[in-house]
Amino acid sequence: MAVLKHIAVKNADYGEAQRYLIFKHDEKTGKPVLDENGNMQFRNNYFLGGINCDPFTFDTECMELNARYGKNRGYDEIKSHHYIISYDPKDADKGLTGERAQELGLEYAAKYFPGHQALVCTHTDGHNKSGNIHTHIIINSVRKFDSEYVEFMERPCDSHTGFKHHLTKAHMAFLKQSIIDMCCRENLHQVDQLAPANKELQTNNTALHSTGTENSQDVPNKFLLAALDKLKPPSDILSGLGNSLSPNFRSFFMFFFFAFLHILENIFVKFSKKY
């Protein structure tokens, strides 16, 4: 199954991303693996490419673009976005190679991050020696070129140069769905990345009904129902007052009775949300 992950990066050193993709790193510490002379070692097998930039000058080109538009100056700003497409190790049996994964990564980055400087690199070693092929897509948060406004963009400025990459939960869900579609097209292993949360919710609801366990928000509702049961219907109250009341007063009384019930209901709803 292919999985899409996202990391928002606030590190202003774009060169660190380049070094991670090209050189060997310790998986636990994240530090470079050095040889006996203290030099970094190239990874055994990787595929590297760039979109709207040279992959070997990605860092300087990103900093030049940021300076041109006065962006990414703050410490807490997101400087780049790191996406990872991680394939199932079994996809190798379906003909997936590092070269083909790199082609898919370049295609994906060009289509869904148009106008951005993108560094695309595919590794074939996997995490913890799992052997799964995975592709890193690192984009500068600032867009370099204008692009055509397409369906997944949420703001008009999302296609204009000088503006930053805008990622929402809805946009991330769209990107995950696009991975599912790509894997189906390539006949690769795939599961619905958008389903687990709904499945978990359904499981929790099923367990609640099967065990009879009360939700904490249902407790105030029980108090509300009990209080309403003890209230006399408005017709009984009016009949107890006799027929001396005018029709106008009866209508006035009915209006305020139901208004009171509405206010009482809102009070218990707020209480249930708080506790």
Report on this structure.
It is a single chain. By secondary structure, this protein is of the alpha+beta class. It contains 8 helices and 5 strands, in the order E-H-E-H-E-H-E-E-H-H-H-H-H. Strands 1-3-5-4-2 form a 5-stranded antiparallel β-sheet, with helices on both faces. The protein is globular and about 70 Å long.
Which residue ranges are poorly predicted, with pLDDT under 50 across at least 5 consecutive positions?
Answer: 197-225, 268-275
Gap between N and C termini, in Å?
A: 40 Å
Number of helices: 8
Strands side by side in the biggest sheet = 1-3-5-4-2
Strand runs, count = 5
Mean pLDDT figure: 80
- What does the main sheet amount to? 5 strands, antiparallel
Give helix % range. 40-55%
> How would you sum up the global shape?
globular
Order of helices and strands: EHEHEHEEHHHHH
CATH C-level class of the domain at 3-191 is Alpha Beta
CATH topology of the domain at 3-191: BirA Bifunctional Protein, domain 2
Radius of gyration, in Å, reads: 30 Å
Helix/strand-derived category reads: alpha+beta
Estimated share of beta-strand residues: 5-15%
Assigned CATH architecture of the domain at 3-191: 2-Layer Sandwich
